[in-house]
Amino acid sequence: MCPKDMHLPPSALSSSLKIGKAEIRNRIALAPMSGVTDLPFRMLAWRFGAGFVVTEMVASRELVCNAAESWARLRNSGIDPHIVQLAGREAHWMAEAARIVEANGADIIDINMGCPAKKVTGGYSGSALMRDPDHALSLIEATVKAATVPVTLKMRLGWDENSINAPLIARRAEEAGVQAITIHGRTRMQFYNGKANWDAIRAVREAISVPLIANGDVDTLADAMEILRRSGADAVMVGRSCQGRPWHPGVLAGVAAHPDVTDIARIFAEHYEMMLEFYGVEIGLRHARKHVAWYLDRFAADLQVAEKAAILTSTDARLVSDRVAAAIVRSAGEIVTEEIAA
Asked: Which strand (E) or helix (H) includes residue 245?
């Protein structure tokens, strides 16, 4: 734990951390984001130095029933530790899925109790589980019992401002055998609105002794240091600030240099090609569009609306790759300089 008024040096972010027997190489992690942190994105983030990365949410029942999408989300390629996030609402399916992912190479299993999406909470999964801590604990206990690898938990502060129960659930989760806990500093009802409450995460720190990872609105190195100071957490998880820049966790951890304009264009082109190879061209073109938009919004914001639309709707993969890379090289110099300075 870190004392409330302790000011950690930035170098602390590059130090290692233990989750159970698993070694985490530094203290800046890439958050699991459904539809974003697929295998190509995770591979790039890992290469550029993220302390750890987590798969997209894998639906437990669908995995057990051999749904192709769930198995695709489980895939890994040289990332160590391999952390798989499971979601579900029934203890039986969570336990069965835990056995499957461990048998398929998972080093850590993370339980999703934080997703605010209506299609997830409407099925009584994700952050909806925080409305019924006893039921949530039954899922946690079943997962821990089924697995021999460490089990971790990611959740929000509570369902809404009138039910801030993360400290209670965290304490009970630790008693059930969970070996690390990540808290996003918002309630479910906030979705991603307003500002994450970093101070509120401290109550979880005071309730548990296992590693605590703080999440929510971390963009800059100053943000990372401040969320650690105010929450007392041991590590930081970054999510939306990595969209369009998979190198960002490694840069924050101080283990990678910020890429220059030419490197960004090259990374984009590689990322795009990796997605087309992973999904196949037809599906890959669709999945890649959001990533193309993020790169353009970050590094070619002055691009004409018509040109951006033409890129995003094109089915010519080579044209898209070439035009985006050219737009980044043409436009990003000042933006990259500002990011490096920050």
From this structure: none
